[in-house]
Design a protein that fits this description.
This protein is of the alpha+beta class. The protein has a domain of 209 residues: Glutaredoxin (3-Layer(aba) Sandwich). The protein is 40% helix and 18% strand. It is built from seven helices and 13 strands. Strands 4-3-7-6-5-10-11 form a seven-stranded mixed sheet, sandwiched between helices. A two-stranded antiparallel ribbon has the order 1-2. A two-stranded antiparallel sheet has the order 8-9. β3 and β4 form a beta hairpin. α1 runs antiparallel to α7.
Amino acid sequence: MAFVLHSLRKRLSGGVVLAIMLCCSLSYADQTADPAIRNGKRLVGTNKAPGSVNVGLQDKKVRPEGSVIVNKVGAQVSGDIKLVNDKGETVYFGDYFKDGRFGAKNRPSVVVLGYYKCPMLCSLVMNATVESLREIRLESGQDFNLLVSTIDAAEKPELAAKKKRNYLKSLGVKSGEGWHFHTGEQDQIDRLASELGFGYAWDEASQQFAHAAGIFIVSPEGVLTRTLWGLTFDAKDLRLALIESAKGQIGSVVDQVVLSCFRYEPDAQKYGVYIFGVFKLVGIFTIMGLMIWLGLMWLGERKRNKII
């Protein structure tokens, strides 16, 4: 009997080694499978922005990047960008970082750019953002900040405050904690928009700004971690983007397991199943199961030896 158990342990040990090698190889494949990663380092700007259509305005004043959203995931956003909040107070973008006045070490930010007098597109983006935020089971002011800024320096803090009140009332949001609406000087607004990759152009004929639709997720360290394009934002994608940006410091353990099996697909503009992450998770659970089984076998053998 002892000889059989000894042989069984040797075979299981070999199985554990193979499982560990499988996880290691999958970990390596995890890096090389992503075209934005080379030699274990993430390359910034390797993915093209999906759905970015240049409006092609002619003889107009073009703001940073034209009227498209450029993928700048991985870029550091400057903390010294000066804005004015909806209370008329001077603030800096770094105030929302982990060491800032309104930040926390684990609190990422959802950033929305547009302008308060926008007749349609900006309102659609803002409404879609808030609707998704209401469904993600995370609390503004505790788990994340919502930062909104105009791209038009002609708009003043009074208008920002009015827009904030209107959104809170019309969308039935009980608390505005963590909601910050901003205006600012044009050079500071341009800096923020350029670093996020948000382009816009003024159309003199229509007296409107032309711009694309999307929102940005900025980490507590001030790094742009995700750009979400479109007029609607799936609550699952937004939740995963915030948890990813906070490096797992918000959300639950289950969220971490789910995130390991999903990866954002820029072309599809959503999080999709990441097969290597699934394999890695299966490998981990396989090793855990083998270790538990070996432990039970060992305890059973000890009890039998004591009886003998």
